[in-house]
């Protein structure tokens, strides 16, 4: 095989100026864990050709994408092995340059996409996968099965046709020029049916070229085979594959904030599982399960369709049987676990869609979402089945909408049967000084991470107990490179028996416009500060006598558990007592009925 004949000659590769591409057959097999694999089976090209140009013709390569959506020539930008580097974990797979002694992401590279992406659309390409991972004798059945899953077909995102159909606007926007939803993924191209429908709702022209520019950057977020299973590593090698994806892979494997789940999780939902650099702003505590080396796929198992059909709902019961049973009998049985165990949410705090530049060209749908900040504590709402859950709520607007839109009658769940618990509320259309009518809505996204120490009683039940109002405070900083120089601000989210509303929206530092921009383009919230409201009863009610009784039990429990905790720690050699106390602690904290009696019984048995 001519690939290895050339690439295993270290002296020759050094003379050619590519010492980093030195590779032997043994190295490939060991790193990839694919015995007897040949280079052209994964990279394509001509494995029999001796001349480099012929050998490399049609060969697949990593896609380095710039801000204009162009695929850069790797040899011109970063002719080095693409391996983790630098201290910023969420960006450690991006090519680096050294500036003032510091290793920083290459300024020309926006995204890194692996070899199974279509170089025109950036979508996962089943035709490429059919020639590589899914070829006969390799993972043929796996690819056939994967193409039927929600992850491969990107079913839910592709269902969003316009700003209003079929289920209202979304933070990610509609599918501007994407494939229509299908049961089986068959191609990676563009389609313009949605583009035509979006034009009908718009007061401005919207060309196929503009739709394509938007869609290419949307496609970057969505996953293929290599996004999950390819993990280049400095110790394990550039060909390192994993059968079981790690949480780092689910979070984009260090390729920035707009690939895989960083876009949806860290930015949109404002969550984190890994914590640290994998939160926006950085520094959020990791989920307690991540600290115990539990990975996403350990809890979010595959569904009926197998690999790629990852379940949104994760079961706690396999690990926390006693706690789940206790919780199911408690006064809080109508709350999911996250309701108590999530204390703040980060990421986007405001999103404005307005005129701006996409791929260096004018576009009506520039997404000004980099109002990064912290919101807490999360507002608690009831889902489709009446169960309380924590949500992130933030105001949205999109300009130049043609139809008049009335407010929703209630919170609207995008998937009423419970496939997801994400919701929205249409506030309606309003006029501003520019960009015609603006469509306003509230984005309402379920939060599931990070699990940490539980919220205290008074976090939900304000004093006096008759005050059932919820208040979440959001502080943020605008950090986009269009619109204005960075500035800071904040607002509050109030939810009570009178409804839910955004209040006190303000910038706390001056807004200095960049040339050619207006406030309506990126900060339309300035003109609609009091408009984001919805009716309904969002109060958390409790009877005074009942609350005081349980609060007294909770306080006594805290004292008893602290005393027992110190006592059990002294018995560090008695594992049986430690295990019993851990189980007892989990049960009594999740069901206070009879909890003090359980504590007394445990103390007598010590």
Automatic annotation (TrEMBL):
Organism of origin is Dissulfurispira thermophila
Keywords of the record, alphabetical order, are: Electron transport, Heme, Iron, Metal-binding, Transport
Name of the protein this chain belongs to:
Cytochrome c family protein
Q: Check the record and name the PANTHER family matching this protein.
A: CYTOCHROME C FAMILY PROTEIN, CYTOCHROME C-TYPE PROTEIN
GO function terms (MF aspect): metal ion binding
């Amino acid at each position: 095989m001519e690939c290895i004949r050339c690439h295993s000659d270290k002296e020759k590769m050094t003379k050619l100026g590519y010492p980093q591409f030195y590779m032997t057959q043994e190295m490939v097999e060991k790193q990839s864990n694919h015995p007897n694999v040949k280079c052209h089976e994964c990279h394509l090209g001509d494995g029999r050709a001796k001349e480099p140009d012929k050998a490399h013709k049609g060969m697949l390569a990593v896609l380095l994408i710039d801000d204009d959506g162009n695929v850069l020539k790797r040899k011109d930008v970063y002719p080095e092995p693409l391996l983790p580097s630098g201290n910023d974990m969420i960006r450690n797979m991006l090519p680096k340059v050294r500036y003032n002694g510091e290793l920083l992401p290459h300024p020309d590279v926006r995204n890194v996409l692996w070899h199974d992406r279509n170089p025109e659309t950036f979508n996962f390409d089943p035709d490429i996968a059919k020639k590589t991972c899914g070829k006969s004798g390799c993972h043929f059945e796996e690819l056939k099965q994967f193409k039927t899953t929600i992850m491969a077909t990107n079913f839910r995102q592709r269902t969003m046709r316009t700003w209003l159909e079929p289920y209202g606007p979304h933070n990610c926007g509609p599918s501007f020029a994407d494939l229509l939803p299908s049961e089986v993924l068959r191609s990676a191209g563009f389609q313009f049916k949605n583009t035509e429908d979006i034009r009908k709702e718009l007061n401005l022209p919207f060309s196929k070229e503009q739709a394509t520019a938007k869609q290419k950057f949307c496609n970057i977020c969505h996953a293929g085979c290599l996004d999950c299973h390819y993990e280049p590593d400095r110790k394990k090698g550039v060909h390192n594959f994993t059968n079981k994806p790690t949480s780092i892979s689910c979070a984009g494997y260090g390729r920035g904030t707009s690939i895989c789940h960083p876009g949806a999780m860290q930015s949109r939902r404002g969550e984190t599982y890994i914590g640290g650099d994998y939160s926006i702003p950085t520094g959020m505590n990791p989920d307690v399960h991540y600290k115990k080396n539990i990975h996403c796929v350990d809890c979010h198992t595959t569904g009926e369709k197998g690999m790629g059909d990852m379940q949104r709902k994760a079961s706690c019961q396999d690990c926390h049987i006693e706690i789940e049973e206790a919780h199911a009998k408690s006064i809080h049985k109508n709350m999911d676990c996250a309701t108590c165990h999530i204390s703040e949410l980060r990421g986007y705090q405001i999103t404005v869609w307005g005129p701006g530049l996409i791929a260096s060209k004018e576009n009506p749908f520039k997404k000004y979402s980099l109002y990064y900040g912290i919101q807490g504590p999360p507002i608690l709402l009831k889902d489709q089945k009446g169960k309380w859950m924590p949500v992130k709520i933030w105001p949205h607007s999109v300009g130049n909408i043609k139809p008049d839109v009335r407010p929703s009658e209630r919170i609207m769940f995008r998937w009423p049967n419970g496939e997801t618990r994400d919701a929205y509320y249409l506030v309606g259309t309003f006029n501003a000084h520019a960009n015609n009518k603006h469509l306003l809505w509230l984005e309402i996204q379920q939060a599931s991470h990070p699990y940490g120490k539980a919220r205290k009683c008074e976090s939900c039940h304000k004093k006096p107990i008759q005050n059932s109002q919820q208040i979440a405070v959001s502080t943020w900083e605008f950090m986009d490179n269009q619109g204005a120089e960075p500035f800071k601000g904040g607002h509050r989210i109030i939810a009570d028996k009178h409804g839910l509303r955004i209040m006190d929206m303000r910038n706390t530092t001056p807004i200095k416009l960049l040339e050619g921009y207006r406030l309506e383009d990126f900060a339309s919230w300035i003109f609609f500060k009091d408009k984001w409201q919805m009716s309904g009863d969002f109060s958390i009610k409790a009877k005074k006598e009942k609350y005081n009784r349980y609060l007294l039990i909770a306080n006594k429990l805290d004292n008893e558990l602290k005393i027992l905790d110190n006592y059990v720690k002294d018995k560090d050699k008695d594992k049986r007592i430690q295990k019993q106390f851990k189980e007892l602690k989990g049960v009594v904290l999740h069901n206070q009925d009879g909890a003090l009696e359980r504590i007394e019984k445990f103390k007598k048995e010590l």
